[in-house]
Amino acid sequence: MEKTYYTLDEMLDEDLGKIGTPQRDAFESTVQEEIRAYHIGEAIRKARQERSMTQEQLGELMGVKKARVSKIENGHNITISTMARAFKAMGIPASLNLGGIQVAL
Asked: Are 48 and 58 in contact (CB under 8 A)?
């Protein structure tokens, strides 16, 4: 019996519909949000490590527990407020570009 192989896009088309359908667009949007959160968490981790800080030390400066810092660095529940507190705790000036408007964190 011959095996049939499918690409990820083919499977997503079958399960969620083609790109442009509401369910597929919602899925793609969620994936993109999670990827951005992961990259932000990685930036926070890298900055912490460059300063030779432990998660516990950063947590103390932010007023949160080590477990929360771990979740942040893994991209879970990152808010603008959380980003601001993390970068401020490490003495890193940070800003967001929101549609051409720079917002300091």
From this structure: yes
